[in-house]
Write a structure and sequence with these properties.
The chain has 491 residues and is an alpha/beta fold. It has 18 helices and 24 strands. α12 packs across α14 and α12 packs parallel to α15. The chain starts with a strand and ends with a helix. The structure holds adenosine-5'-triphosphate and magnesium ion.
């Protein structure tokens, strides 16, 4: 296999952080090369250097054995490097078609050739089996569909090198499978793929080679066949990870939340009960109504019908503020967009959600604020651990930790978590599980929406499966199995 891309001694620093230190990396034709490492290890920074978003401080880049300069995104696209970045990059007011060609529209004599672009788009959608309606505004697409849009945009460019930075974090099981099929197809055509994921099972399904980054340095770069899962984890975190899921002794208490005959959009008729100290899993595939349910319970969407009882008394949740007043908080699925004020600091983002706790007669109690923010940073291992750090510049996984931290430090009695561990590295995941378990032990009730069936089975006391807006089944801990969850999700 001939070499496509080679990086030599690449370094990159940001104020206070050495994100990459003398990184060597190479990619061959037809190779799927996985890049793994903890949150903040430098994966996305490396990707951004290859795709021209950032410029390396030092080091050399070779493309097809020629030394090249990649100073901006156009240089990368010109060489044939196409990237699906970790964060969602879609323009909400534009249509799917406009989004697809935002950076390479076809035109002649200043006229944009919509017909040509439409035909190209349809051709590529058919080729890869990804179907989106071209005239729909991007804002109306679900998070997974937005990700597919981003992937399609990269595929349109007929790249020689395709970079996927955590593409499946926003995808469902079926879409992930489709993506894998397409990635393998591209590999067979000789395209080199750089693949980033925190789901190591995915690495084992796809990769030929694995490079592990830790604190901005390459720890190892080896064929996958020479590595075990435990080897990879050990290289990532620098030590062995013993127990992944915490041992939970579940003693659910009295019912805290009752939902009766709830209807909204896709939700046809949902009834459920949630107990104190319980972790209730909500499973289902895309379109089953899981996020709609969460949004209704948090007051983002108004139900058409149905009653919600808190401790036996009916409550009306018309806005998120009503929900928060009733002790209900929500960690949303699209954490970056819905959960954070990116231009502000970690301190600001955590404080703003907890003003009641840290003010007295309307005056901010600075020492309380410091204590709370530092504790959150410590509990969630937010890295770098600086309260004043701008959230925008945290790595993707660390941004997610801030969202979860900001809601969890509150005195909530019900925590709704929508895909809380997507995009979070193994070490932090296991820590997140410990926290969930601790919350439950403290008597908080948790609704855990997850597409990771293993996570549901290992963490929950009970799992409710939704299918097409209805409860298709309920499983008690003694009945848990992945097969049953899949069966109930799709039967
Ligand atoms: N623009 C920036 N300004 C300041 N620091 C930055 C910037 N971009 C990245 N960093 C820092 O560089 C380090 C590497 O971040 P990077 O986003 O590459 O991590 P990652 O491996 O992609 O992590 P994740 O798995 O969470 O996505 C982190 O410490 C991050 O905070
Ligand atoms: Mg990243």
């Amino acid at each position: 296999m001939s070499e496509m891309l080679r990086l030599e001694e690449i370094s990159k620093s940001f104020p206070g952080v050495r994100a990459l230190k003398n990184v060597n990396f190479s990619l061959k034709r037809g190779e799927i090369h996985a890049l793994v490492g903890e949150n903040g290890a430098g994966k996305s920074t490396l990707v951004k250097i290859i795709s021209g978003v950032y410029k390396a401080d030092s080091g050399r880049i070779f493309f097809e054995n020629k030394k090249v300069k990649i100073d901006n995104a156009n240089d990368a696209v010109f060489l044939g490097i196409s990237t699906v970045h970790q964060s969602l990059v879609v323009f909400p007011d534009l249509t799917v078609l406009e989004n697809l060609f935002i950076d390479n529209y076809s035109s002649s004599k200043g006229l944009i050739k919509w017909k040509v672009m439409r035909e190209k788009a349809v051709h590529v959608m058919n080729e890869f089996g990804i179907h989106l309606s071209l005239d729909q505004e991007a804002r109306t697409l679900s998070a997974p569909a937005q990700k597919l849009l981003q992937i399609l945009r990269a595929l349109l460019k007929k790249a020689k090198v395709l970079i996927l930075d955590e593409p499946t974090a926003a995808l469902t099981v079926d879409e992930t499978e489709l993506l894998f099929k397409n990635v393998k197809k591209l590999k067979n055509r000789g395209i080199g793929v750089i693949y980033i994921s925190h789901l190591l099972e995915e690495i084992f399904q796809l990769a030929d080679k694995v490079t592990v980054l830790r604190n901005g340095e390459v720890v190892t770069s080896q064929p996958l066949s020479e590595l075990t899962l435990a080897d990879i984890v050990k290289n990532m975190i620098g030590k062995e990870l013993r127990s992944y899921y915490p041992k939970r002794e579940s003693k659910p208490g009295p019912v805290i939340l009752t939902v009766r005959n709830l209807r909204k959009g896709i939700l046809k008729n949902i009834s459920l009960k949630l107990r104190k100290g319980e972790i209730l899993g909500i499973a289902g595939i895309l379109g089953a109504g899981r996020t709609t349910l969460a949004k209704v319970l948090f007051g983002i969407l108004k139900p058409d019908k149905g009653t919600i009882l808190l401790n036996g008394k009916e409550i009306k949740i018309k806005t998120p503020l009503d929900a928060i007043d009733n002790g209900i908080v929500y960690v949303p699925e699209d954490k970056q967009r819905q959960g954070l004020i990116l231009r502000e600091s970690v301190r600001f983002n955590i404080s703003i959600a907890n003003l009641k706790t840290i003010t007295k007669h309307g005056i901010l109690d600075l020492s309380k604020e410091n204590f709370m923010v530092n504790k959150a940073i410590h509990d969630f291992e937010i890295d770098p651990p600086f309260p004043g750090f701008q959230v925008l510049h945290l790595s993707g996984g660390n941004q997610q930790k801030v969202v979860i931290a900001k809601w969890s430090v509150r005195n909530a009695s019900i925590i709704i978590m929508d895909e809380p561990t997507q995009g979070i590295d193994v070490g932090s995941k296991s820590q997140m599980y410990n926290l969930m378990s601790m919350f439950a032990k403290d008597g908080k009730a948790i609704i855990l929406i997850s597409s990771d069936f293993n996570e549901l089975i290992n963490m929950c006391d009970r799992i409710i499966v939704l299918r097409k807006g209805m409860v298709s089944g309920e499983l008690d801990k003694s009945e848990f199995s992945i097969d049953k969850v899949i069966y109930l999700s799709t039967k």
